[in-house]
Specification:
4-stranded mixed beta sheet, alpha/beta, methyltransferase activity, N-terminal domain of TfIIb, methyltransferase, transferase, 626 residues, 15 strands, 7-stranded mixed beta sheet, SAM-dependent_MTases_sf
């Protein structure tokens, strides 16, 4: 049988051609979606009044003129923006393509959780946003990496008022493509891993070279499309950008990309350790504090084992799992026991308050703060689902989110409830940051039961999303919620489901066990009964929609952490060449496992949505009216 022309196309080349073609079209479409500032004649700019209330922050070597500043201010004011990143007209080709891969201009402003992105050369900001963000505009001029990091921060303080624009009169000051150390620094400033991205870049180049040599004209076509991509995406008549040396950059792209990938990989390897002052605390001081804590042993962080279930009092207890700290690799071992009568799962012996402080430290803030923020920033669909659960039942004017962290849910929920006042409560200092960002109106710092009498009857909605399982006394938290709600108000709760099939299949590496942070995991029937005892009637319950698609990916991540903990962790024995080599080997070996896990999670999520059998559940309960 004679093969058809389609059957003669090597599938690798076909996939590469499709991906590169789609990427090129996407970049060109996104570029056309970025507004272009009008060119203001210098004579008109000379007679214009001073633009009070605005500051233009520029990287070293960038010198904007008055017309550019005035045009940017006029555009920002007309569009209701408070942060505007300006793209120089001569932005180098690879910088422009990188930005267009990260940002969809059509959605960037509306996405309240999107990371702040820009070119890193000039940012127009209101003085009010700078003040809330704690940025001194009179400080030393930043380099490109520092300005990129600042743009990320400023977007958090203007979540729905940040935009991009091309400034025809602005030049990047002769800056070309960044070298290895500079590129690694710029990637880190954007919250991206330079080592992993360099590996992907080099792997992609190797694949293109292989198909070009082995797959004939189709392989050559794929390599050629990659080669010509800068000009196809950025060049031609009508392009709003005029990248300096676009022709040379296109002609030399494979060689330049190879060099950039190698230099970035080398720079990432040299700087593999943590930033010594990532949150203002020197790493040496942090390590010394941990050594002092560990000198007395971690056994003191556990209370005596209890003999009865904290939910129903039964003494029919069995061990569900025993695990070390798989989240951070801190010393200690933890046991979750299950009640044979009510099914309640709880940490036994449980951590003392001092123990909780020790094991939470550097997870949501400090050393781990940026990573935690990145994870929370990617949960937009989950936040929207939680907020939309209220739509058939209420139109709340006031909402208290308990365990709000930095307020990510409240920030995202404003898209669903724009007229609702969102307040937040948490034990961590992140709630103060949420208030400064404007993600919550008022931030309460402390334990929820301590605020119950002060806030009695003030809120139409109280939410506890993945909060109750972290608490020492969940029934006291439910008492506080019943007190704070107005009659007819709603309590929204989301929790891991200890009855999930995946909990038994994956055992100790089931991520929602989340030891040692999770203290209690309640079956849905137990929670329904506890709510009824407090005068709250369940009006909606969701299992499939609450599913978090991370069962297999989380299991691989926990297993990899156990095999090769971070050698630079300040509570560890200290980095050694052997530990670094082991960590690198485990990361490389786990890549195909992560890929397979992601595929399995995709299937698992589809099944969970269809069968209503996820790894978490949501409940919405209404407080009975006397």
């Amino acid at each position: 049988m004679t093969p058809t022309p389609f059957q003669r196309v090597p599938w690798t080349s076909a996939v590469l051609l499709a991906a590169l073609g789609a990427g090129t079209v996407r970049a060109r479409r996104r570029l056309r979606a970025i507004p272009v500032l009008p060119v203001t004649p210098p004579a008109a700019a000379a007679g214009a009044p001073r633009a009070a209330g605005w500051r233009l922050l520029t990287a070293r070597g960038v010198e904007p003129d008055a017309p550019t500043f005035l045009a940017a201010r006029a555009h920002a004011e007309a569009e209701g923006l408070r942060v505007l990143d300006l793209l120089p007209a001569d932005l180098p080709a690879e910088r422009a393509l990188s930005l267009l891969r990260l940002v969809d201009p059509a959605r960037y402003r509306q996405d309240r959780l999107a990371a702040g992105r820009g070119a890193g050369f000039a940012v127009l900001v209101t003085e009010e946003v700078l003040s809330r963000a704690g940025v001194d505009p009179a400080g030393p001029r930043p380099d490109t990496a520092e300005l990129l990091a600042l743009t990320r921060r400023l977007k958090e303080y203007a979540a729905d008022a940040t935009g991009l624009a091309i400034a025809p009169g602005l030049s990047c000051g002769g800056a070309g493509e960044p070298g290895g150390p500079a590129r690694a620094a710029e990637l880190r400033a954007q919250g991206l891993p330079p080592g992993a991205l360099a590996a992907v870049q080099l792997g992609g180049l190797a694949l293109l070279a292989g198909v070009a040599v082995r797959q004939g004209r189709w392989g050559a076509a794929a390599a050629g499309l990659y080669w010509l991509q800068p000009y196809l995406a950025l060049g031609g008549p009508g392009s709003p950008l005029r990248p300096a040396g676009l022709g040379r950059a296109t002609a030399a792209r494979p060689v330049r990309s190879l060099g950039a990938g190698l230099r970035t990989a080398a720079a990432a390897g040299r700087d593999a350790g943590p930033d010594p002052a990532a949150d203002g605390a020197p790493e040496a001081a942090r390590a010394a504090a941990y050594r002092q804590d560990l000198a007395a042993g971690v056994g003191r962080f556990l209370e005596p084992r209890r003999e009865g279930c904290p939910w129903c009092g039964s003494d029919r207890l069995t061990v569900r799992v025993r695990v070390p700290d798989l989240l951070q690799g801190k010393p200690g071992r933890f046991t979750l026991e299950q009640c044979g009568d009510c099914g309640h799962v709880f940490q036994n012996p449980r951590l003392t308050p001092e123990g909780l402080d020790f094991y939470y430290r550097d997870f949501y803030d400090g050393r781990g703060g940026e990573g935690a923020g990145t994870v929370f920033g990617r949960l937009g669909a989950a936040y929207r689902g939680r907020a939309e659960m209220l739509l058939p039942h209420a139109d709340p004017a006031s909402w208290l989110d308990v365990g709000t962290g930095h307020g990510h849910f409240c920030n995202a929920a404003r898209d669903v409830w724009p007229q609702t006042r969102f307040d937040g409560l948490d034990m961590g200092e992140g709630v103060r940051e949420a208030e400064r960002r404007g993600w919550v109106e008022t931030g309460y710092l402390g334990q929820f039961p301590e605020f119950a009498s002060k806030l009695a009857g003030q809120y139409e909605v109280v939410s506890m999303y993945h909060y109750l399982e972290h608490t020492r006394e969940p029934l006291a938290e439910l008492d506080a919620a019943a007190t704070v709600l107005t009659p007819g108000g709603f309590l929204a709760i989301e929790l891991p489901d200890p009855e999930s099939r995946m909990a038994r299949l994956l055992g100790p590496v089931w991520l929602p066990w989340f030891q040692p942070q999770h203290q209690h995991l309640m079956p849905a029937a137990n929670l329904r009964e506890a709510l009824a005892d407090r005068g709250l009637t369940v009006v909606a319950e969701e299992h499939g929609p609450a599913h978090q698609g991370n069962d297999f990916f989380g299991a691989v991540a926990l297993a990899a952490t156990r095999l090769a903990p971070d050698p630079d962790r300040p509570w560890g024995p200290g980095p050694t060449p052997r530990a670094r080599l082991l960590g690198h080997a485990v990361r490389v070996a786990s890549l195909p496992c992560f890929a397979a896990a992601a595929a399995l999670d995709t299937v698992r999520t589809a099944v969970a949505r269809r069968t209503d059998g996820g790894n978490a559940y949501r409940m919405l309960a209404r407080k009975d009216v006397p």
